[in-house]
Design brief:
The protein is an alpha+beta fold. It contains four helices and four strands. Strand 2 and strand 3 form a beta hairpin. The longest helix is centred in the N-terminal third of the chain and has 17 residues.
Length: about 120
């Protein structure tokens, strides 16, 4: 099955982001899965302040990892990330379970900023 992990790591150190992505990738690979791609989205403000591991965060470093694995492997990734104090938030979404559903999905996930504020001037008037 194809899964997509969207993770938010505390800001400040790109090394921490790499270590977390590497750890998640190693779990998938050691269980016989395949990592299709990891995309670094960079630092963004969070929708609201988040309290996690005795810290308050208003921004975070986002990355996305797409991987093929079994359900128990995906659960192991979730458990590992949930215990890491450097993590702010994460979500794992199943993108598909059949070959026809996932054959054309690439590993890279682009962040599309072009359409976010296209009509901003219209709303100002």
């Amino acid at each position: 099955m194809l899964y997509e992990l969207i993770a938010v790591v505390r800001p400040g150190s790109l090394v921490e982001v790499r270590e977390i992505a590497k750890t998640a990738g190693i779990i998938v690979l050691n269980s016989g899965g395949v990592v299709r791609g990891i995309t670094n989205w960079g630092n963004f403000l969070l929708p609201k302040r988040t309290h996690k591991h005795l810290a308050t965060n208003s921004s975070g470093h986002y990355f996305v990892m797409r991987f093929d694995s079994s359900g128990p492997t995906q659960e192991r990734v979730r458990q590992t990330l949930g215990l890491d104090p450097r993590m702010i938030k994460f979500s794992v979404v199943k993108l598909g379970g059949t070959l026809d559903a996932i054959k054309d999905i690439s590993g890279k996930v682009e962040w599309n900023r072009s359409d976010r504020y296209d009509d901003y001037d219209e709303y100002q008037s």
